Amino acid sequence: MTVHSPTTPPFRDPHLPVAKRLDDLLARLTPDEKVSFLHQFAPAVERLGIAAFRTGQEALHGVAWMGPATVFPQAVGLGATWNPDLVRRVGEAVSREVRAMRAHDERIGLNVWSPTVNLLRHPLWGRNEEGYSEDPKLTSAIATAYTHGLRGDHPTYWRTAPVLKHWLAHNNETDRATSSASVRPRVLHEYDLRAFRETVEAGAVAGAMPAYNLVNGRPNHVSPYLRAHLRAWTEEDLLVCSDAGAPSNLVDAEHYFDTHEEATAAALLAGVDSFTDHGTDATQITARVKGALEQGLLTEADIDTAVRRQLSVRFRLGEFDPHYDPHRGTGEFDTPAHRALAQEAAEQAVVLLKNDDALLPLAPDTRIAVVGLLADECKLDWYSGSLLHRSTPLEGLYERFGAERVEFAEGVDRVRLRTTAGAFLHVPPTDAPDTVRGTEGALDPALLSGRTDLPPLTTDATGTEFALADWGEGVLTLRAPDGRYLSVAEDGHVRASADQPGGWVVQETFRLEPHQNGHLLRHLGTGRPVSVAADGVKVADAGEIFEVITVERGEEAVARAAEQADVVLVIAGNDPHINGRETEDRTTLDLPAHQQRLLFAARAANPRTALVLTSAYPYALEAPSRLPAVLWTAHGGQAAGTALARVLAGDVSPAGRLPQTWYESDADLPDLLDYDVIGGRQTYLYFEGTPLFPFGHGLSYASFGYADLSARVQDGTVHVGCTLTNTGDRTADEVAQLYTRAVDPSVTRPRRELLAHRRVTLAPGERTELRFEVPLSAFEFWDVAQGGWRLEQGPYDLLLGASSEDIRLRTTVTLDGQAPAPRSVVRRGLEAADFDEQSGIAIVDRTKTAGDAVTPVDGGTAELVYRACDFGDGVIEVTAQLAGEGVLELSLDGGPTLAALTLPTPTADAYTYTTLGAGIVTEGVHDVHLRLRGPLRLAHVGFTG
Fold first, then answer.
1. pLDDT tens-digit map of 576-630
2. Contact of 824 with 173, CB cutoff 8 Å
């Protein structure tokens, strides 16, 4: 029996069960105190000795936004390692740095908003850099590893509390706060939910963050799936944190609710526990919650449920047990081990896409020309910390091969800008100190403003020569000779003031627009053209007309460097703040024209030209067959240059693998808002074309032999084994990948699907036995006819190899399961969204709280097909639950219309359904075809005999 002293309340007793401690603490909090905890910035409760608490510390690939920290490769680069053990160690290092930084800065939070487990379904998504893979199995493996590293391995106390982003089906920045993803049940269960589910079930997740978008017409912040799925996967209390500003979007942008009280209540009842809105100002959220309580939309028990979940996480973080918290005071920051890990991760993320004639690795005495806009860059993204260390490709090559053997040409166009008066834009000299954006840290870096301590640009007779880079679609940056980029601060003046393009609204990008006999220089951040005024150069309503005087084109410098080299390395790719980032999707897979010009110039001058792509996403390449070697790496963090140089030199054999399909052209892509990976034949799972480079692809400097494939089914598991041998002459890693394919499925199944993988290191001649144990559940699919998972009996191919297309061994196993059976439509009817095929359909919300319906896109015409529907001994009537207005037509097997149900006048609203019926006589098994005409919503179809 525990005896409490008068000064030690039960919630402070570490020997009591957490549930009892939570009960005690909740009972001590006043109603107002509980409400105050619902905002992101929960205040202190001094009378109980409870500190303030903030949800949300960005830590996607290192501690972000809060100043210098170790910067690891982007998340998509960590996905490219295919190495859960490495990623777990990265997560561990990041969480240790969170703890270390918090010891000196209480703004650092322990509730980390990471990782992002949205699947990389579409390569034009602006936030491609934040995800791990297009495949749910690989994504969950990497995310599980990262969350385990972030959590730590203590059974009770967590080092940090990771929150998964962004729930759910979120792959577009275009209209992201108002667009709805139509996600059919099979895609929901087999694809989008799966990555979240397997990560949550692994036991190291503290919560999730809903996405800005809607799914099936319902905002994710009031999603019934939070309760029905997310919280059903674990017995832990999960903390659901809203995305920034999303609670207000429910009314202001989405118009889903009429009042903020309704919206806030609905979100809390759906499962949102912490509201991230209005920055540090909690007054509006707390007022909305209190208003909802007064209106009877919420009860105090509802508030208790949400607060309890937050407090549960705080208990796990050791907040109330400072003397027992094993992580308190144990943080590590910028240690030699962390620096070495950053380099190891960057090395493992490099993917060798092509290597004809063994151009790589480079011999030690190779004369190298390194050229391109990214050759001397170490780029950061929106979710990076500030660099403590920096290594560019050029610096890495200097270090590895010697500066005397490396020639550099950036490939920028060098220009002067002449006004109509004949003067040139000029950067005045200054002795102001250099500063790097973000080094001071900020809870919201979107609020950081540009520098005003530097003089604005002026004009003079000779002007300044600027380095112009075109990042695609005419988006330019202009850099002064001292390395500072032209930028616009809040006062509207143009200065050479930024160390790099960046910020929530980038202020360092421009566009040259043809105008009269010259060009307007339009600043994209403000949308205003640049003008010349008496107090300096600024943006204004009316702009100056400039003549662009090209001093040297980038191709000229690149060709000079390439001609003298043994090998040319063209370093191309993207700036993570320009043309593809949060808030901005890409419009094309194509490499920007400026960089294509540099590549063509280098290749024309020297056929021994290798392309090194450093980017947050895939590209389509023109005539890659003309290039002897191609590599890709995501932006690799602080050690990117050193890692790349070591791979190019052969110190490390590349073993990264593509985490997503690289398509040949934009023509291979579905619409960005088409979330139906099955019907749209998307990702390697269903894509029927020929990719530029397939999922899982990556070459090595070594070679590997696969042999002795074995497979057996026992005790609910498929056991697969093989022998893997390094048949090359150097130590290297191989990533063995196991896929399956249903040989004779009754429904559309993946053309192949990843079951498991293993990254192993082997010395020359070394052999190892690989063993994979795959549960039979991995072979199931979501059967819309039964509304659940089903293992279909029959043969399944097992495919083992080095990529999804490079299969070295194969065999077939026959699995016991259920035989295909027709839908019993007399008993269950047809849920409208449970179709097998569709054309022109959008899935929408049946009600604001639960259920799906379907409607034609834009009120047009749409068709649905439900295969193999069993009418038994016969039916005589069809009924349908309909809302809106329009016509529903039914036919069987593609034949004539047998019944038409018409709503001639609109129902009261989209959620007011009426049941209409018509006579129909049929029996046996048929395919049901439904055609919807007009703005009609269909929820369910029933049949009676």
1. 999 999 999 999 999 999 999 999 999 999 999 999 999 999 999 987 889 999 9
2. no
Neighbours of 553 (CB within 10 A): 19
Q: Are the CB atoms for 686 and 186 separated by under 8 Å?
A: no
- The whole-angstrom separation of Cα 99 and Cα 332 is 8
Q: Is the dihedral of CA 669, 671, 677, 679 positive or negative?
A: negative
For 904-945, write each residue's pLDDT tens digit: 999 999 999 999 999 999 999 999 999 999 999 999 999 998
The average pLDDT across 322-333 equals 92
Nearest-angstrom CA–CA distance, 746 and 748: 7
Q: Span 356-376, mean pLDDT?
A: 97
280 backbone φψ class: left, alpha, beta (φ>0; ψ -120 to 50): alpha
Assess contact for 791 and 818: CB atoms under 8 A.
yes
Q: How confident is the model at residue 438 (pLDDT cuts 50, 70, 90)?
A: low
Give the SS3 label for residue 401: helix
Cis peptide before 166 (omega within 30 of 0): yes
Percentage of the chain modeled with pLDDT above 70: 99
CA 251 to chain centre: 26
Name the strand (E) or helix (H) holding 423. Answer: none
Sort residue 192 into left (φ over 0), alpha (ψ -120 to 50) or beta: alpha
How far is residue 195's CA from residue 137's CA, in Å, rounded to a whole number? 7
Over 70: is that where the pLDDT of 437 sits?
no
Cβ(798)–Cβ(740) under 8 Å?
A: yes
CA distance 272 to 268: 5
With tokens 């000229």, the residue in question is 556
- What distance in Å separates the CA atoms of residue 676 and residue 842, rounded to the nearest whole number? 11
Residues 393/591, Cβ–Cβ less than 8 Å:
no
From the list 170, 643, 555, the residue with the least C-alpha distance to 378 is: 643
Q: Are 509 and 451 in contact (CB under 8 A)?
A: no
Is 816 noted as a catalytic residue in this protein? Answer: no
Q: Please, what's the largest Cα pairwise distance for the chain? A: 94
3-state secondary structure 777-794: HHHCEEECCCCEEECECE
> Would you say residue 319 has pLDDT above 70?
yes
Residue type, 82: W
What are the residues whose beta carbons fall under 8 Å from the beta carbon of 830, sequence distance 6 or more?
Answer: 823, 866, 869, 928, 940, 941, 942
Residue 115: asked if its preceding bond is cis (omega within 30°), the reply is yes
- Token pair, residue 114, equals 């990471």
Q: Taken in order 615, 72, 146, 40, is the CA torsion positive or negative?
A: negative
Tell whether the model's pLDDT for residue 672 goes beyond 50. yes
For 573, left (φ over 0), alpha (ψ -120 to 50), or beta? left
Beta bridge partners of 782: 789
Beta strands in 315-363 (DSSP E): 351-355
Bridge partner residues of 682 (DSSP): none
SS3 845: strand
Catalytic residue chosen out of the listed positions 135, 192, 237, 243: 243
Distance CA(601)–CA(603), nearest Å, equals 6
* Cα radius of gyration (the chain): 30
CA 565/CA 569 separation, integer angstroms: 10
pLDDT digits (tens, 9 = 90+) for 855-885: 999 999 999 999 999 999 999 999 999 999 9
571 SS3 class = strand
> In this structure, are residues 790 and 815 in contact, taking their beta carbons and an 8 Å threshold?
no
Q: For the whole model, what pTM was predicted?
A: 0.97
Residue 485 burial (C-beta neighbours within 10 Å; 0-12, 13-18, 19+): buried
363 contact partners, CB below 8 Å, separation of at least 6? none
